[in-house]
Amino acid sequence: MAYLLKGVSILGAAPTDLHIVDGVVSDTPEEGAEVIDATGLVALPGLVDVHTHLREPGREDAETVETGSRAAALGGYTAVCAMANTSPVADTAGVVEQVWRLGREAGLVDVQPIGAVTVGLAGKQMAELGAMATSAANVRIFSDDGFCVADPKLMRRALEYVKAFDGVIAQHAEEPRLTEGAQMHEGEVSTRLGLTGWPAVAEEAIIARDVLLAEHVGSRLHVCHVSTAGSVEVLRQAKARGVRVTAEVTPHHLLLTDERAEGYDPVFKVNPPLRTRDDVEALRQALRDGVIDVVATDHAPHAVQDKECEWSYARPGMLGLETALSIVLSVYGPQWDLIADRMSTAPARIAGLTGHGGDLTKAGTPANLTLVDPSVQRVVDPAELASRSRNTPYAGMTLPGRIVATFLRGEATVLDGKAVK
Ligand SMILES: NC(=O)N[C@@H](CC(=O)O)C(=O)O
């Protein structure tokens, strides 16, 4: 299938014609190509998410690889990295290969499995990182996300182990002894609501420790869902010293604050918790500066019974894939170069996903891209989401931008704002 995207603006530049032929960007038109009127639309390299929870195997009532892939494509993504906290945990070659195969069968985005760092995410014994790296799933990112690799000796060994194949340890930075019973950010609002708080220092202390370990070992560390101004300062200093550390921020931490907990609506319960306005400002600036490298969704679907209950019983986590670009647009406006780097090129580099995040002006670049209509304002309706879950914190909000089409290696996965399969 060949396409001609007529009058498209690549990253906000003057309108041009973009030819997609045989799965790549081409500078020569193809006879009989399907013409898409792309007037007013912006082409971005397909978005890449380094932090997605797809819930399969184990919690297919909340999401499957297929439903999550569809949500991703509709959000403009062409690749997602699937977190390891499934059931069974993705801590063996068998499980990561299963997730990888399910992703191929769904065929809507490239699903790159993340392997667990420790057996069963229990933080005691290192998982078979080498077996997962050499499996068909070709795992490069390892994470116990949902839990912190709290034992410093184990963290050091894992960093040493992955160095051999340029792997990366993605840390969920949470000192567990400081967050026992935590329900939200520790601060003025938690005091008023009478909820046990997760102090900012519980995140910052682990990041500080881990950048020192990564520096000592000379290995790659990635910090998941950075949420505090103090974490940003630790990362800024580490990067200035040349530590091989990268970091992500979620759309919700760029937009929402802990005041959302005031109605006790569990849709706003998430780990790490929503923080203060000052934290939000520091995160926004850090993403601009490049101290934080990427936006990652931490798309965390949960079944109704796990979310629509009393706050303290509700699971933490919120949906992200289908709203991420709109949230980032609402925060930064049409800064397309920034958006393309932080949501596509940089995450593709971190995950080692060659073929994603490429330059759409160059012939031969794999045609992984998405078309956005920035002029449209959409009202988020949970019932319309492709995810199997409904736990979006943005229900009823009016947000800028609509994904019109997404292409994976030149094949449309989304057309006219609808998934093709
Ligand atoms: N982000 C969340 O609040 N939840 C994540 C795991 C996690 O990161 O805690 C989940 O898997 O639901």
Automatic annotation (TrEMBL):
<comment type="pathway">
    <text>Pyrimidine metabolism; UMP biosynthesis via de novo pathway; (S)-dihydroorotate from bicarbonate: step 3/3.</text>
</comment>
<dbReference type="InterPro" id="IPR004722">
    <property type="entry name" value="DHOase"/>
</dbReference>
<feature type="binding site">
    <location>
        <position position="172"/>
    </location>
    <ligand>
        <name>Zn(2+) 2</name>
    </ligand>
</feature>
<comment type="similarity">
    <text>Belongs to the metallo-dependent hydrolases superfamily. DHOase family. Class I DHOase subfamily.</text>
</comment>
<dbReference type="InterPro" id="IPR002195">
    <property type="entry name" value="Dihydroorotase_CS"/>
</dbReference>
<keyword id="KW-0479">Metal-binding</keyword>
<feature type="binding site">
    <location>
        <position position="145"/>
    </location>
    <ligand>
        <name>Zn(2+) 2</name>
    </ligand>
</feature>
<protein>
    <recommendedName>
        <fullName>Dihydroorotase</fullName>
        <ecNumber>3.5.2.3</ecNumber>
    </recommendedName>
</protein>
<dbReference type="GO" id="GO:0005737">
    <property type="term" value="C:cytoplasm"/>
</dbReference>
<dbReference type="Pfam" id="PF12890">
    <property type="entry name" value="DHOase"/>
</dbReference>
<dbReference type="GO" id="GO:0008270">
    <property type="term" value="F:zinc ion binding"/>
</dbReference>
<feature type="binding site">
    <location>
        <position position="225"/>
    </location>
    <ligand>
        <name>Zn(2+) 2</name>
    </ligand>
</feature>
<feature type="binding site">
    <location>
        <position position="302"/>
    </location>
    <ligand>
        <name>substrate</name>
    </ligand>
</feature>
<keyword id="KW-0378">Hydrolase</keyword>
<dbReference type="InterPro" id="IPR050138">
    <property type="entry name" value="DHOase/Allantoinase_Hydrolase"/>
</dbReference>
<feature type="binding site">
    <location>
        <position position="53"/>
    </location>
    <ligand>
        <name>Zn(2+) 1</name>
    </ligand>
</feature>
<feature type="binding site">
    <location>
        <position position="298"/>
    </location>
    <ligand>
        <name>Zn(2+) 1</name>
    </ligand>
</feature>
<feature type="domain" description="Dihydroorotase catalytic">
    <location>
        <begin position="42"/>
        <end position="229"/>
    </location>
</feature>
<feature type="binding site">
    <location>
        <position position="271"/>
    </location>
    <ligand>
        <name>substrate</name>
    </ligand>
</feature>
<feature type="binding site">
    <location>
        <position position="85"/>
    </location>
    <ligand>
        <name>substrate</name>
    </ligand>
</feature>
<dbReference type="GO" id="GO:0004038">
    <property type="term" value="F:allantoinase activity"/>
</dbReference>
<keyword id="KW-0665">Pyrimidine biosynthesis</keyword>
<keyword id="KW-0862">Zinc</keyword>
<feature type="binding site">
    <location>
        <begin position="316"/>
        <end position="317"/>
    </location>
    <ligand>
        <name>substrate</name>
    </ligand>
</feature>
<dbReference type="InterPro" id="IPR011059">
    <property type="entry name" value="Metal-dep_hydrolase_composite"/>
</dbReference>
<dbReference type="GO" id="GO:0004151">
    <property type="term" value="F:dihydroorotase activity"/>
</dbReference>
<dbReference type="InterPro" id="IPR032466">
    <property type="entry name" value="Metal_Hydrolase"/>
</dbReference>
<feature type="binding site">
    <location>
        <position position="145"/>
    </location>
    <ligand>
        <name>Zn(2+) 1</name>
    </ligand>
</feature>
<feature type="active site">
    <location>
        <position position="298"/>
    </location>
</feature>
<dbReference type="InterPro" id="IPR024403">
    <property type="entry name" value="DHOase_cat"/>
</dbReference>
<feature type="binding site">
    <location>
        <position position="51"/>
    </location>
    <ligand>
        <name>Zn(2+) 1</name>
    </ligand>
</feature>
<comment type="function">
    <text>Catalyzes the reversible cyclization of carbamoyl aspartate to dihydroorotate.</text>
</comment>
<feature type="binding site">
    <location>
        <begin position="53"/>
        <end position="55"/>
    </location>
    <ligand>
        <name>substrate</name>
    </ligand>
</feature>
<dbReference type="GO" id="GO:0006145">
    <property type="term" value="P:purine nucleobase catabolic process"/>
</dbReference>
<dbReference type="GO" id="GO:0044205">
    <property type="term" value="P:'de novo' UMP biosynthetic process"/>
</dbReference>
